[in-house]
Amino acid sequence: MDFVHGLFILCITLILINHNLKNVEGRSHFHKEKKVTSPIPSESSNSSPSVPSDPYPNDPRDSSSDCVFDVRYFRAVGDGLADDTPAFKKAWKEACAVESGTILVPENYTFKITSTIFSGPCKPGLVFQVDGVLIAPDGPDSWPEADSRNQWLVFYKLDQMSLNGTGTIEGNGDQWWDLPCKPHRGPDGKTLSGPCGSPAMIRFFMSSNLMVSGLQIQNSPQFHMKFDGCQGVMIDRLSISAPKLSPNTDGIHVENSQDVGIYNSLISNGDDCISIGPGTSNVEIAGVTCGPSHGISIGSLGVHNSQACVSNLTVRDTVIRESDNGLRIKTWQGGMGSVSNLKFENIQMENVGNCILIDQYYCLTKECLNQTSAVHVNDVSYKNIKGTYDVRTAPIHFACSDTVACTNITLSEVELLPFEGELLDDPFCWNAYGVQETLTIPPIGCLREGDPEAVGDLSTYQCSN
Ligand SMILES: *[C@@H]1O[C@H](CO)[C@@H](O)[C@H](O)[C@H]1NC(C)=O
Ligand SMILES: *[C@@H]1O[C@H](CO)[C@@H](O)[C@H](O)[C@H]1NC(C)=O
Ligand SMILES: *[C@@H]1O[C@H](CO)[C@@H](O)[C@H](O)[C@H]1NC(C)=O
Ligand SMILES: *[C@@H]1O[C@H](CO)[C@@H](O)[C@H](O)[C@H]1NC(C)=O
Ligand SMILES: *[C@@H]1O[C@H](CO)[C@@H](O)[C@H](O)[C@H]1NC(C)=O
Question: Domains in the chain, start-ordered, CATH in brackets?
Answer without folding.
Answer: 63-232 (2.160.20.10), 272-465 (2.160.20.10)
